[in-house]
Amino acid sequence: MPAPALSVTDLALSSGGRQLVHPLTFSLAAGERVALLGASGSGKSLTAAALAGSLPEGISAGGTITFGAGSGAGSGKDRAALIRQDPATALNPLVPIGRQLAIPLRSAGYSRPDAKAEAARLLARAGIGEPALFLPRYTGQLSGGQLQRVCIALALACGTPVLVADEPTTALDAVTQNTVLETLRMWSTGGRSLLFITHDLAAAASLCTRALVMEAGRIVEQAPMADLLRNPLHPYTVRLVQAASGSADSSAEGAAARSATATAVAA
Ligand SMILES: Nc1ncnc2c1ncn2[C@@H]1O[C@H](COP(=O)(O)OP(=O)(O)OP(=O)(O)O)[C@@H](O)[C@H]1O
């Protein structure tokens, strides 16, 4: 059996003696798209940062994170690429967008002109029209939604086998959201894996085949997406599915409405 693309065993995160994420164990198969759902403050972004090797100062981590069969520390393949929730902090305001995108591409062996062409192609894949116009621009010249798409292009440029996308569609209009979801779907072709963090259950259902649900720093439910939508078990998951289906009704009619939502979003 092939090794999972990502194996997390007993990942625990704390700050000053306060346990923020309790030991988590989960894995992602090669090519799998998994949603990480949960209330605000449940520990999703800290988990994402741990997978990308970019925990904030003062957060200590325990447990193990292994990519593939395990590669040497510092190889660049021993961490996930991360699309951050806040795109402004992920980019350097003093360096043009094109040069920032070229850095990982040049490290991967692209010539200067090929890196420029690939950077433009990745921007287009992330939903930026006329990407050549964006390459010389600085972050201060872009809208929040455009910055988010540049971050997506940057994550794609890193070429890692695992991508963690932390609420990548939050600041985007509905049309661009669809473009980004399509880009993330394409990401997983060729065996690359995605952990998609979101509050948007419909987006998660359209993109992912499995879901993990966090509450107060713990995974409280994990299931195939279709099962989670039709038969949520944990009270938080039940509320999430009810909210997405517009029903707080736990009756047979409520269950039928949830089932209809499940069918609609899973289609
Ligand atoms: N740098 C930090 N230092 C100390 N505590 C932190 C730090 N970052 C986050 N926390 C705390 O860790 C917990 C989990 O935060 P996290 O940002 O992972 O939540 P989240 O599930 O991503 O929330 P949201 O959906 O709002 O983004 C929260 O209680 C938060 O206050």
UniProtKB/TrEMBL annotation:
SMART domains: AAA. PROSITE patterns: ABC_TRANSPORTER_1 (PS00211), ABC_TRANSPORTER_2 (PS50893). CDD domains: ABC_NikE_OppD_transporters. The keyword ATP-binding applies. Keywords: ATP-binding, Cell membrane, Membrane, Nucleotide-binding, Transport. Its main location: membrane. It comes from the Bacteria. It is found in: Cell membrane. InterPro entries: AAA+_ATPase (IPR003593), ABC_Ni/Peptide_Import (IPR050388), ABC_transporter-like_ATP-bd (IPR003439), ABC_transporter-like_CS (IPR017871), P-loop_NTPase (IPR027417). Transmembrane segments: none annotated. The keyword Membrane applies. Belongs to the ABC transporter superfamily. PANTHER family: DIPEPTIDE TRANSPORT ATP-BINDING PROTEIN DPPD, OLIGOPEPTIDE TRANSPORT ATP-BINDING PROTEIN APPD. This is ABC transporter domain-containing protein. It comes from Pseudarthrobacter polychromogenes.
